[in-house]
Amino acid sequence: MWITAAVFLLAGAALYYFKKPAAEAKGHPVRAIPVTADTARTGDLHLYLTALGSVLPLNTVTIRSRVEGELKKIHFVEGQEVKAGELLGEIDPRAYAVALEQAQGQLERDTAVLTNAKLDLARYEQAEAAVTQQQLATARATVAQYAGAVKADQGVVDGYTLQLSYCRITSPLNGRVGLKLVDEGNLIHASDSTGLAVIIQERPITVAFSLPEDTLPALRKNLGASHAMPVQVYGRSGQEALASGTVSALDNQIDTTTGTVRLKAVFENDDNALFPNQFVNVRLLVEVQHDALLIPLSAVQISNQARYVFVVNKEDQTVSQRTIITGKSEDGLIAVSEGLSAGEVVVTDGLDKLQDGAKVMAREAKPGEKGPGGGKGPGEKRKKKPAVTKDS
Question: Distance between CA atoms of 28 and 316, rounded to whole angstroms?
């Protein structure tokens, strides 16, 4: 049986051998395989870490009354931007004004008594020979007593003056006021937990996010350097860039429950693109590989032995399979350390039809043309979007 199989194989090989020259003799050239190609070029490879973050106001203040009284007037509109020191509300001041007036009266009375005691002391000192030492000591003690009473009265006056000023509730910072929590006419207290309203500072604003603890050495190295670590944030889809900022702080401990370390980045947010408690995709630049040899990631094929690409020979438009050594990848590009030179053309689409020595009809993808997997063509600048950095 194996002899019969060998005979069939030899017959097939002979038929292919004699038929091929006949086809070529009749003027039928070998059909070129259409493929898409790109040129290996040197450039900077930006490596990123990505995470899910939450937008946090730089400062959040709940406006509460520091005195008790009826809320007579609200001076803000819900959602309004306010400045530091701007009037937000007024509490009925009459009770504190009356108390202040009483305290001022007591101060004036004790001041007058102190003045009279000082005059008596002066007379005793002038007539020291006509008075006893006990009378002189008593006069001096009386002056000291009324001086203390005047000081206490002054403290009461200052206290009621301060309470009267608290009847005007002002903003402690620049920010945006939220929805009012109390209506006019209500009696409010300093112990109320809800407060009058909440003010948040939106410019600048921060984003908090967490990264795996394995990234901590790179983070500390970059934060210890003189340059800032750039951060970009994107919307929930990961396509629309919202804002750019820098890392402002690294937490002082690792969360043992998640194995992550928490960071905070600050953004100017002049266009109000970031909103408090908004979930965003964070993209942190951790490394830039300068003058790296870059090719599209779609050009790299993987076998059991190694990674390889199909290089287009410009002389005869055939392809050669070539083994390469790759580095890190980002944004659809991968760095090649060995096996390829700048200027060589590699196939990025149509690879499933190729074998070593095959003739191809190569073209470069036009700008905006969809590449393999829906990516941008090699002729267009790739859009920055969150992607997992991987060490190839």
Answer: 17
